[in-house]
Amino acid sequence: MFLFFKVSNHFFIFFWSPKRLDISGGEMIYHHYGQRCCNSCADITESSHWVLMEPSVSMETGVPVYKHRSPPGSFECAVSGLRWVCTGEVTLQYHFSDPDVFRAEVAMLQYTPISSLMDIKVLSGELLEAHLPHFACLDGSTSSLSDAVRVLRGADTGITLETCELTRFHAKLLKPSFSLTEVLVKIGVPVKSHLDVLIYRTRVTPLTLLTYVVPRDASMIQAVEEDIREIQDAKKLKKHRPDMSIWMNTKFSLTSSCPADVSPPEITLKYIRPPDLFQVFIENADHCFDLELISEGQSIWKATIQSVEYGETGEVARSHKMSAAASRHSRGVFHRDASYTSKAARADEEEGKMATTSNKDQLFMIRPDLIKRISGSVLRDLLDGLQGHQAPVLSGREAEEILQSTRVLRDQVTSLIDIVYRKGEKACDIMLSMLEELDNYLYRDLVP
């Protein structure tokens, strides 16, 4: 199922007491008490009679499939926040689906998403209600926001839109029938978003933190985990949840209380995959220091990071290969030694061969890794730069065809590389030079 809202997101925190319920199926269920985690919308009432339920998880298809079997009652999935009400025993399952499945149709209808696209199936029993989680904050919202929200149902034959009841954290449906489903909001209706802050340590000396600020959305958390997976020894610090929401498409910055290089200087809040991130480099980290998010001159989140969380400064961090996450937004603002790249460990004679390789051959040699690891933002910057070069490498028509022929990032990158490669040595040289400027870490990792 999907939730869609004008550019905005939303999140919440749950607290529960570990009281085991005796039900069939062996699943752990806990009484759940709603905890207001957003000061912006704290005056909006929310029922707290839901029972939090841990799903069973299957990986048979390579994609996590979550399954619940519940007795009569009102329940909430501990993974996604999906809620349901039933008067008899129900078995249901769901998984997160590719968010681009209906993106073209949704865009044509002038809507935008506010939650995960989920494929939900009721295997047995019947639901009286389903409550689909969204990440939009209802602070200061008017009836126009509720009027602008729709639930999308998708199938091979097309899509339909249905009305729903919008609550603080969910979109409510009565007697739902499921398929691929999502909730949308009409583009042009302003929406605020609740946030999650996810921090990963990739090195201790110098301290290197990758910091994601994303809409509160379970599939977005999965996207971050996939983005970070290639980094060896990455350590996840505890998740933070700001108690203020901000408008979608708002710019915000990240600051540190101790001297640090933060790249990029600003990020715009968007619901995109892979999500944008800050890289924080601290040469001499204090025993504890503060990180703070600033948006429109206002602090929206501040947290103290202690050495016990990220590791002692004397710890020796092992070498690792930088992933797409670690390379995104890099501009070479922080010196890194050879341990930042596995390429630097290659034999001297191999590096010598690369030094005499033509630009066309270099682009061809790095093509597989570049397709896998380049970010969407760097691709867009490359397209703009190649069009705007003094001697344009790409025409506007070619750039448009790259973006419109497919919505799959890897396919777009493949098309760009193939077009530039066919244009010869000079075009390849220009593209490689732009890649070095736009994403220095990725370039240095691919081209010694």
From TrEMBL:
It comes from the Eukaryota. InterPro entries: CARD (IPR001315), FIIND_dom (IPR025307), NLRP_Inflammasome (IPR051249). Residues 46-319 form the FIIND domain. One of its GO terms (biological process) is innate immune response. It holds the Pfam family UPA-FIIND. The keyword Cytoplasm applies. It is found in: Cytoplasm, Cytosol. Residues 367-448 form the CARD domain. PROSITE patterns: CARD, FIIND. One of its GO terms (cellular component) is cytosol. Keywords: Cytoplasm, Immunity, Inflammatory response, Innate immunity. The keyword ATP-binding does not apply. This is NACHT, LRR and PYD domains-containing protein 1 homolog.
